[in-house]
Amino acid sequence: MINIDQHLEREKEKINRALEQRLSHLVPSAVTDAMRYSLEAGGKRLRPILTLAAARTLGSEDDSVIDVACALEFIHTYSLIHDDLPAMDDSEIRRGKPTCHCVYGDALAILAGDGLLTLAFETLANYGSRDGCESRAIRIIAEISKSAGVNGMIGGQALDLGAEGRELSLTEIEQISLLKTGALLKASVVCGGIAANATQPQLKALACYASCLGNAFQIIDDLLDYESTTEELGKPAGADQVRLKANYPALLGPEKARARAEALYSESLAALDNLDCPAADLKEIAKILVYRKK
Amino acid sequence: MINIDQHLEREKEKINRALEQRLSHLVPSAVTDAMRYSLEAGGKRLRPILTLAAARTLGSEDDSVIDVACALEFIHTYSLIHDDLPAMDDSEIRRGKPTCHCVYGDALAILAGDGLLTLAFETLANYGSRDGCESRAIRIIAEISKSAGVNGMIGGQALDLGAEGRELSLTEIEQISLLKTGALLKASVVCGGIAANATQPQLKALACYASCLGNAFQIIDDLLDYESTTEELGKPAGADQVRLKANYPALLGPEKARARAEALYSESLAALDNLDCPAADLKEIAKILVYRKK
Lengths: 294, 294
Prior knowledge:
The structure is a homodimer of 294-residue chains. Chain A is mainly alpha-helical. Chain A has a single domain (4-289), classed as Farnesyl Diphosphate Synthase (Orthogonal Bundle). Helix content of chain A is 72%, strand content 1%. Chain A contains 15 helices and two strands. Chain A has helices at residues 4-23, 30-39, 46-57, 65-84, 100-104, 106-128, 134-148, 153-163, 170-195, 200-227, 230-233, 239-242, 248-252, 254-272, 280-290, and strands at residues 93-94, 97-98. Chain A has a two-stranded antiparallel sheet. The longest helix of chain A is centred in the last third of the chain and has 28 residues, at 200-227. The interface between A and B is large, with 52 and 52 residues.
């Protein structure tokens, strides 16, 4: 019987080492300092953990998939740096620490985000430079660039910015969540599958699992923001409400929002049954995400 | 005998059509409007023209290389949008038109830049999805991501920002130019070569040609800024001097700066002799760039 907490802690350490290794060839500068600052600011490493778990679930023990996992964390971190900028969400605190632009200024924060996004694709090219990985790497780069792009994560951030100060329907909230958080989460799981040579039905099952999980994850995020105090959360609590941002608990009430997250959790587990292989890790990760307290 | 002007005009039209095609699958939004605005704001298309010319020089008539050419223009355009932001160079006019953030606001300009950078890699993945292109695409993605990244273009912009308001040595000016302009120009030429299956000595010759040309191009850019009036140039003239930015004519005087550009031009032509094939187009492009009046 695996102890999932210990296992995830080890995965996180492995990912942290790999992230640092992939920064080590960059000429030291204020930009790399800013990149490193945001990378080391205590993320959950959810996306790379999902990539590694999906690949392992499909039978891949290949160490090279860590490149794919790191690329996803680089993209996630870049998106946080740019979203936090004064011109965007204007957030001064994230994960209990001053945001990148508060420490390094707006110019370096913009460049650090650009640098991380670019490094993500350099890292994926490195994955693809291994014998036999070329074709999978191209599929992974296609998947990640679409998910992170204007039809995915960037589009979600644009919709979110446009939604400030007006009431949204549940459909609109779901659309924003699907793009802003869901698209890259889904890519994280699916790319683990591609790296492990998953079949098309298996990729479909992974995508379904990840979509439900991504949606549940966002609802729980909103609920934690809705319910928490600043001290517990590490960022100004109720920030979404203050800025009149649309979210699930504000629209449905917290009980219905939680019920919805739990229904999506069940759906994500059901999707894994179509993988035709045991998926204990992916199930445990979903459980931890949906029942987390911070 | 080719008429180079007509030829380049046709190439530019082909590139413009290809750029638009690669935006057409994006869900229309203010972000895609902002991306299109900056793409259509009258660029010379120098990087994609160099890519196509290098590929054709090495004997490739393959249409797929246009994907590589477009990716380089997307990256160049993203870099201009982000560099023009108030937090960076704070430029209101480029190519005679208001800059992206002046029309769409800072938030959309940041997202438009992010979107173009991401679209560049989606376009390269599309290039690599063709039979037999996987391996070359991976090499091209590695080359472009390194050139555009922190050890290349982004690093150059960071150095340039840090250089404002203080006097620089010639070595420092060259280092900034090498990274900020030179790295992506070099990648544009080299990637055309990779797409055309160039040999290692040929890639070396292309890299040498492009490095000299990139440096000459930057000197001419500085000279035009130094000498021109706003009306002629389409951007505030002498802007570099006003902001105490380091540049070649300010340090060397305009005559010596021009002589240096012409020496680099000769060097770029000499490098092409090592290609072991005629390179009339690449030579003509170099001539046009070094002897341009705007």
